[in-house]
Queue: 2 jobs
Job 1
Amino acid sequence: QITLKESGPTLVKPTQTLTLTCTFSGFSLSTSGVGVGWIRQPPGKDLEWLALIYWDDEKRYSPSLKSRLTITKDTSKNQVVLSVTNVDPVDTATYYCVHAFQHWGQGTLVTVSS
Amino acid sequence: EIVMTQSPATLSVSPGERATFSCRASQSVSSNLAWYQQRPGQAPRLLIYGASTRATGFPARFSGSGSGTEFTLTISSLQSEDFAVYYCQQYDNWPYTFGQGTKLEIK
């Protein structure tokens, strides 16, 4: 059974760095072809892909956010970490980690506010 | 970036009737198109991938079709649990992009 769970702060101040962790089970990020991504959804708004990381450490970033995003993996811990620098209230959203489009975490709501 | 456009924004249909959703891509995405169902307060669920293959757990009343730039999701006979928001997403080119969603509401 594949599960993913996001963790991190629920409240972040503007200009700070947001760090989110996705802890997963049921698959390995050292297996060829495997990837884990991050998607966010502002309240009442649309879904947006942020970043993807693959088993071979290939990384993809949303072009509009690339300068502010960093995605890393820790294969031994079954974790993927997403960092978002210089956050703004527009970054307020539910952040999901996703595997193979089919497996989603429950999401974590992050509010950016002073 | 490929822009995905869904129509209509809201679809009002009675239980037992058919619902048809449209999704258009700004350039060809071949068959690299997925549909998701999202209920309030929940994460999206993969419904269709490869434009027409049903994901695990969804009954045969859900079907997808299309290729290139025009795609359709059809629910043949609506059940109460089907009322939700439906999103299309292309995964032909990075960044993967979603449509703005179609809200299916009870008429």
Note: Chain A is about 0% helix and 50% strand.
Job 2
Amino acid sequence: NAGVTQTPKFQVLKTGQSMTLQCAQDMNHNSMYWYRQDPGMGLRLIYYSASEGTTDKGEVPNGYNVSRLNKREFSLRLESAAPSQTSVYFCASSPAGQYGYTFGSGTRLTVV
Amino acid sequence: AQSVSQHNHHVILSEAASLELGCNYSYGGTVNLFWYVQYPGQHLQLLLKYFSGDPLVKGIKGFEAEFIKSKFSFNLRKPSVQWSDTAEYFCAVSGNNRLAFGKGNQVVVIP
């Protein structure tokens, strides 16, 4: 019962480096989401994919790109990391957004 | 777009005390409502949800929430907390194929 799997769990980047956060779900869910969590800010939506082949911006998309590779996988890319992107990143999936999410275990990213 | 407000961001209470966390939302359409819990160092887990029907919803670990449509509220309650309830609690509302989350309530239960 893997659910939503995120890799890596921890990452330290230098300013300007790039990286891709991976997310995969095995529940045949249509919708997938990327959030960032910062103290006192709650969860803010970065990008989401309502269905395979579609992606849309959320509240805080600047500095990020996404790819819905197939129904299972939804990756988040930081092209040129900045200290302001230090955060915990959560991937989530859902049959459709209104039914609630299953979350991955998160990626703690530090940009120095 | 939908939005969620949670009050009393930090709550400290003793074991066996009662807990109530407020949640108010705004959205023009039909909503589904959720409470998620995040234990220290872990990811968010579903505590309970409301789609329709009985406005008093019971979830896991003795939590319950009441949907009051006229007040746009979905408050979370637990009659008697335990040390293991120390966590952050997030209210969420559905709309536009996604959830909007409140900023969370950090709850610390003192043994």
Note: The longest strand of chain A covers residues 31-38.
